[in-house]
TrEMBL record:
Residues of the MIP18 family-like domain: 12-84
Organism: Psychroflexus maritimus
Protein name: SUF system Fe-S cluster assembly protein
Pfam families: FeS_assembly_P (PF01883)
Phylogenetic classification of the source organism: Bacteria, Pseudomonadati, Bacteroidota, Flavobacteriia, Flavobacteriales
Transmembrane segments: none
NCBIfam families in UniProt: SUF_assoc
Amino acid sequence: MAEIINTEELGDKIVRVLKTIYDPEIPVDIYELGLIYDVFVNEDNEVKIIMTLTSPNCPVAESLPQEVQEKVKSLDSVKDVEVEMTFDPAWTKDNMSEEAKLELGML
């Protein structure tokens, strides 16, 4: 019998996974850094993540979205993952959580 998991619970698991992924140049996870704009989970447990990078010329522009996709897809209840990159709106330091700003000595 397949495990039944609600989309909100799965969303929480996805956020926990995203918090294990770090920008290699900044010692803060990509979620707290504000690189994740949105996470959508449908009733079929298919996930769409809209994310950005600190700049379009970021050295991990190829590898970071792939790492996000692979790690989220590794969750048992996730059927499929699509990662969409966007630079609109552009990332700014205002996207960072208070926790990230504190970690980086910006508060």
